[in-house]
Amino acid sequence: MAGLDIPEKYRQGVFEISQLDDRSVQAIRKVLDTVTMTSEYRYNAVISAISSLDQGNEAIGEAIGALYGVRVANEVPLEEFVNDIIESMDSKSQWQIPDDKREGFRRNLHSVFRRGIILIAGKGVDLQTEDERTFCCTRILTDLRPVFGSNVADGPKGMVVVHLLKLGFYRGGSKRQHEEIYVSLDAEDLETLRTVIERASSKAKTLRSVVPKLPVFGAAKE
Fold first, then answer.
1. Rounded Cα distance, 61 and 138, in Å
2. pLDDT of 68-117, one tens digit each?
3. Cβ-based neighbour number of residue 82 at 10 Å
């Protein structure tokens, strides 16, 4: 992947990878190997776990999370990816790895970024968000609206229960452009939504049961 440019905010973390000893690298690798492919998978969970290690810190966790995202998106072979990282660090004089650390740096990068469950999980998450819009959040607001007769001064003649469904989403799956829409619902609409959601959950469980040997993204935990 020619032209990898590591953002400045991640270079400190990448540089610190070159300073890690074997024990620290193995501790980080253990975190990466325990990533599970569930709907709860997120890069920030991996970053948090790495950052909480005695041997790790937040800068290293953020750098690893960001670079895994790059590798997943571009499907770069490991050796090429490692070379790209080293070349990118060398392009900035203040972040060049000392000669006595370069061999260890390359070895650490190979260990941290080798193919593993996190790459497959990352691809699964990437596929989940490969849509024009991806779900972010939702809320249903319920209120009463008065119904007046011809003479407003007589006060309301009745009330109508109105549900307003708020849907928040990201456009293009980028998680940068956040938008919202509002949809009016009545009691029958709520039941329709409930039925559709329950059916979708049942289909996910059924699909999971027919491929028991393969991890399934986006399915509820048993």
1. 30
2. 777 776 777 888 989 999 999 998 888 999 889 999 999 999 988 886 55
3. 20
